[in-house]
Amino acid sequence: MDKYWKTCLLLCLLSPVNLCGPGRSPSHSRFKRLRKGDHFPEYLHSEVDVYDKNIPPKHCSELVQIITTDIIFKDYRFESDARKTTKICRKALLKLSNIVKSYWKGTLKLLVIQGYMSSPEKEVENDKLHMLGRAFNLELKLSKNPSKNHKVADHVISRLGELAYRNTQFQYVRFDEGGYLHVSCPCEVDKVESRCFPSNSEVNLQNGSRALIKDIRPGDSVLTMNQNGELKFDEVVMLMHQNKGTLIQNYVQITTDNDKSITISRHHLIFVSKTQTKYAKDVLTGDLLFTYDSLTKKAAKSIVTHIEHDVTQKGMHAPLTKSGTLIVNDVYASCYAMFPSHRVSHAVFWLWRQVYDFLKYFDFSIGIPSDEIHWYPDVFRKTLVYFNVL
Q1: Over the stretch 77-88, which tens digit does the pLDDT of each residue have?
Q2: Which CATH number fits domain 38-184: 3.90.1150.10, 3.20.20.70, 3.30.1380.10, 3.40.50.740?
Q3: What is the pLDDT of residues 328-357, one digit of tens each?
Q4: Would you give the DSSP letter of residue 132?
Q5: Pairing relation of β-strands 231-256 and 221-225?
């Protein structure tokens, strides 16, 4: 039975994943357009802050060559040092190259105007990541005639920056005053990435009590909200991820003007309108969230007043409800992470909701998986990786 359902799941996933590319899908909410001098993430003052001001003096991993004809290097030699980079940066750059080819339908190619610097004439602060093989300066060139001195418009470079930050492992993207895009990526040995809530998060149960998220089980009914802003209780149908003991260092703590505070992983989706979501790492002061007032028993609109990044908390927990939403610490959030569209993620889990109802109807025990990650979302994640979406 288990093998049968896994096969059905793979067939189900193939269709929605194709809708998830970096093109002009309606499920992709847009970032603020980058102007010269702007960068992602917007909340940081400098590139060094992305990596906790802890850029190691040596390479964090072995440097490898980028051998491809889909990317133009300013130094055209295949043995050039400019082609050296870390494995994670090579993966990010190749992925961005494929995105460029798809988005601009083969008319443009990536041009690397500066990559790895083995021995710069004069070492400066901005060159540190270039010297470690973790940064690139990028432009776009015409595919058919790359030698032609054709300068693409600023809005095209801005869009490239959005695609790079949203869809690849580049954690810092800046539209430089010189008209090019600067990108950099983390060490492979950087922090464990969580896409959940910490163990001390609380949810509201249908019996009127509150429970720690680590104690929630399939079949429990927890408080959430529908698209009309009406509160309701919804059944938990899966524990997508559970780990009670690991210390996670990359949570984001978001506080609102009515003193509600949620701690959530960087790549978890949170609602900034009744239907629109953002990654928690992209939430800004002044954004609108929806919260629950336990005194009035009503939902309220709240303004984000404070954001703290890289918060350390214990545990990772991700319960899934039938609606794909829940209220955690009185803040309305999506159950989903990893992929930027709540709507597409919810569609992918349609099959599991049917399986859950089937098993429940025949009084089969749902059980709690012994693995940290439930096999269903794990197959979804691996499928996205296979299709180069993650």
Answers
A1: 555 677 889 888
A2: 3.30.1380.10
A3: 999 999 999 988 899 999 999 999 999 999
A4: T
A5: antiparallel
